Structure formats: C-alpha cells, structure tokens
Amino acid sequence: MFFYPRNQLKLFFLDLSIFAFLLFILLQDESELSYFIRILAFILILFLYVITLNFKKWLHVLSSLLGILLFTFLAIQTSPNLLIYLFVFSDASGNVKITPYILLTQIGLVLSYVTVSSISYGDPFAFLTTMFFPFLFLQLALPYVIRMIKRTQSLERDLAVVNKEIESLIKEEERNRIARDLHDTLGHTMAVIKFKSELAIRLMDQDSKRAKLEMKAVLEEIKGASKQVREVVSELKHIRIQDELLHGDSLFKGTYINYFITGQHSIPQLSEVTESMLALSIREALLNCYKHSRADRVHVHFSLKDATLTCEIKDDGVGLPQERDLDGTGIQSIQERMAFVNGKSEWNQPTTGNGVTITLLLPIIDKGGNAL
C-alpha cells in the first residue's frame, strides 16, 4: 500500500480489482498493439492514478488528463470499451474543488469520447447513440455525487464537534463548580485552622493541656481538608497527548485535509497536569485548523532539544485574519494553558505563501530544577 493514501484504504481492494480486470482485458485483446506498449501504458495509468489520489490542484489535473490521454490511445488501438474504465479518474476528481479542477478533467473526458468516436466510428458524436453515452453521463456526474457525500459527512463531523464542545462546556462548568466547592470548604477549614493555631500559641504558656487539645483539633481539620482535596481532584481526568493525536486523526478523516504526525518518540514522561495542559493546547490548535484553516495539509511534529519539548502544528491554509480575534481562534486559551505549566506558545505566518505554524514550547526542567 505504498503511496496509497490513508483515507482511501477502504477502497484499496476495489481499485485493485478494477486495475486487475483492466490488465486482463489489455492482455486478452487481439489487436496488433505490442504487449510491451500495453503493459507500459497500464503501468503509467496506474502511476498517474496514484498521483491523483495523493495530490490536489494542478498536479491532480495534469495527472488526470495524462491518464485520460493514455486511455484514449488504448481505446483507439485496442477497443473503445476501455473508455468505461475512465471511471477511475472521474472518481478521483471528486476529491478536488469544482472550479477549475473538476471542470478541466471533465472537458478531458468529453474530448476522449469525441476523439475515440471520431476515429473508430467516423463520427465524433456517434457515442451519443451507443451504450457509451450513459457511461459518460455517469462519469461526469460521479465527482459531484462524491462531493455531496463528503459534504454530508463533513456536516455530520461538524455536528459531532459541536456536541463535543457542548460536552466540554458542561465539563468546564463542572470544574468551576468543583473550584467553588473547594473555595467554600477549604476556605472555612483554613479559617478554623488559623483561629485554633493562634489560640494554641496564646495558651501554650498559660494552659499547655488545652493548647495541646487545640493542636489536635488543628490536626483533625488538616486531615479533613486533605480528604476533601483528594475527593475533588480524583474527579478530574488526566488527558493524554496520544489520545488527542488520535482524536485529530478521526477529526480529519474523510476530509480534504491530509494529517501527519512525526517525532512522537521525542515526547518524554510528563506529569499528569503538564501533559493535560499540553494535550488540551494541541486539541485547541487542531480544532482551529479544522474549523478555520481550509488547509490541504496539517503536520504535527515533536522534537526535544536543550531540555525543551517543542510541538509544531503547521498547516498550509488561509492563515490568520489581519485582525486577530484571540477568543475566536483559540490563541488566548492556548497561551493560558501553556503559561500554567511554565511554557509558551508562538504563532508564525510566512511572509510568502499560506499557512500558520503554532509552536508550543514546554521546558522539561522547571525553574526549581525539578523534572516536570
């Protein structure tokens, strides 16, 4: 499956079967075309098809048109029935934008039928009265059907993202409630501890027995406070970086965005709090790419150098708006999370070309010289 895109793997065996039948028909045909030229043309068509699956825009169009040209040559030299197999390039065209990429490919399809019909039957429009016309119609319609299916899937994913955000808001509200509970319970407990400690200090010389009782009461209050903190903290979930990377994989699956991850081996062992803050920042950055970037490619890269873990999230999309809305793009929340663990975030946009690079920098050794 070398060079075969991940989001196309479910159709791998179907494509394999189609090309196997194509090769069989080419080898069984009784025309005078040499077997060397047939096999060479088949290999070139297969190579061009793989290119159309992996690339977009002009390279996609060029590969599709060259593939259609080879099919036209084979249909003229062997059998016009080979035009039916132009479905492979029609199907691949459903993964690019309509204007101008799909339209150029469709012009190539029509010209292919006209050329073969003109040479094989002596009339450029003879195919309109044969079985080839319905096939051409389906080949022209297929990219739009594929785009409608992908659009529906994209809307379903958007709905799932919105539901997940609602779920996150509910969890955030729950955390706020826990914070209020901590403040209310521990605030009262600390006030009691302060009062009893001051009282024990005053009674130490006058009534040591009562001072001892007051310190025992302080100890009980501390034990109670520790228990309250453990109960609250146990409700908070540890968020792993690996889980967020996998979430990104499912987020971009089926879209026009190619999602890559490199350097995962560079991620060291982190404390739960530190890993959770970095994972949430990555989540926010990937969600930002999904919602706003309109990119073709998103690349997440990790590296570890000079006791600093660097995570780069790079896309080739439309870039940041001229007037940056910190709340709208998630910059502020990422900055706050990274600052919480003594890290920082940087947003860079190239002067030439498109895209944004989000760099998350996390010191592995804190200011006190301790490992995070």
Short structural description:
This is histidine kinase. The chain has 372 residues and is α+β, with helices and mostly antiparallel strands.
Give a verbal description of the structure:
By secondary structure, this protein is of the alpha+beta class. The chain has three domains: about 5-130, no CATH class; about 155-235, Single alpha-helices involved in coiled-coils or other helix-helix interfaces (Up-down Bundle); about 240-365, Histidine kinase-like ATPase, C-terminal domain (Heat Shock Protein 90, 2-Layer Sandwich). It has helices spanning about 10-30, 35-55, 55-75, 85-90, 100-120, 130-205, 210-235, 240-250, 270-295, 325-330, 330-340; strands at about 260, 295-305, 310-315, 345-350, 355-365. Strands 1-2-3-5-4 form a five-stranded mixed sheet. A hairpin with a 7-residue loop joins strand 4 and strand 5. Helix 5 packs antiparallel against helix 6 (about 130-205) and helix 8 runs parallel beside helix 9 (about 270-295). The model has no long low-confidence stretch (mean pLDDT about 80).
Write the layout of secondary structure elements.
Layout: H1 12-28, H2 35-54, H3 57-77, H4 87-92, H5 98-121, H6 132-203, H7 208-233, H8 241-252, E1 258-262, H9 272-293, E2 297-305, E3 308-315, H10 326-329, H11 331-340, E4 344-348, E5 356-363
Parallel strand pairs: 1-2
Antiparallel strand pairs: 2-3, 3-5, 4-5
Helix pairs in contact: 1-2, 2-3, 3-5, 5-6, 6-7, 8-9, 9-11
Feature tags:
single chain; 372 residues; alpha+beta; Single alpha-helices involved in coiled-coils or other helix-helix interfaces; Heat Shock Protein 90; five-stranded mixed beta sheet; 5 strands; 63% helix; 9% strand; EC 2.7.13.3; histidine kinase
